[in-house]
Design brief:
- By secondary structure, the protein is an alpha/beta fold.
- The chain has a single domain (34-181, 192-205), classed as NagB/RpiA/CoA transferase-like (Rossmann fold), CATH 3.40.50.
- It has six helices and eleven strands.
- It has helices spanning 4-14, 38-47, 59-70, 83-91, 134-137, 155-165, and strands spanning 52-56, 78-79, 108-111, 115-117, 122-126, 141-147, 151-152, 174-177, 182-183, 191-192, 199-205.
- The strands form three sheets. A five-stranded parallel beta sheet has the order 1-11-6-3-2, with helices on both faces.
- It starts with a helix and ends with a strand.
- 27% of the residues are buried.
Length: 206
């Protein structure tokens, strides 16, 4: 009579040997190619996840379109803490507020960014941007003002570019914003604005 141990050993001996592991292919590109202008690819990919992208033909076009959007908000409840943007808004007659203490009834926050990643529709931000990281998280609506020169194709380019920009002395906090904050953790029901802004608008001067 064959023991349980012997039976197991016999099965192991009779088992076919698995094929050797395949050698990883390090030459094939990881990312799919982008076959359109970066600003269009960024717009397409961010809008797939409920983001909003406005392509502006000039500085004048930017401030006209931005002013149209801001009509939906109260000027005293729209904050921007970046000096260059504040000055530009003032010169173009756009009323906003500023200050380190954000009100509890804040409606929107306006910031710049480090880079825009076309492949994923992501916005790269950092703690080096004036206003601090609270402006990327606290406002229910996040408005980003960027330029075409800040567009890169893929994530690795964004990381290489930010390393070059800060010459090895990186900001303490670097983050990627990909669409509005959302979660479906509870009963698989999608909730927008769960951990940050419920809407994001990216204005790009092309």
């Amino acid at each position: 009579m064959t023991s349980a141990r012997e039976e197991i050993l016999n099965r192991l001996k009779q088992a076919t040997h698995p094929e050797p592991d395949e050698i990883p292919d390090f030459n094939t590109p990881v990312y799919f190619p982008i076959d359109q202008p970066l600003e269009l690819a960024f717009k397409e990919n961010l809008e797939k996840i409920n983001g909003n992208v406005v392509l502006c033909a000039s500085e004048t076009d930017l401030y006209e379109r931005l002013q149209q959007l801001l009509k939906a908000f109260s000027p005293e409840k729209v904050y921007c803490n970046e000096t260059a943007l504040q000055q530009a808004f003032k010169e173009n007659g756009i009323g906003i507020s500023s200050g380190s203490e954000l009100p509890s009834d804040l409606e929107a926050g306006i910031t710049g960014c480090e880079f825009l990643i076309a492949h994923t529709g992501s916005v790269m931000v950092s703690s080096a941007i004036e206003g601090g990281r609270q402006m990327f998280v606290y406002p229910p609506v996040h408005i980003v003002v960027a330029r075409k020169e800040q567009l890169v194709a893929y994530l690795d380019e964004a990381y290489s570019s930010i390393q070059q920009k800060y010459s090895g002395c990186l900001p303490s906090h670097i983050a990627l914003i990909t669409g509005a904050s959302r979660t479906a953790d509870i009963e698989k029901t999608l909730v927008m604005g769960a951990h940050g802004p419920r809407a994001i608008y990216v204005f790009i001067v092309c």
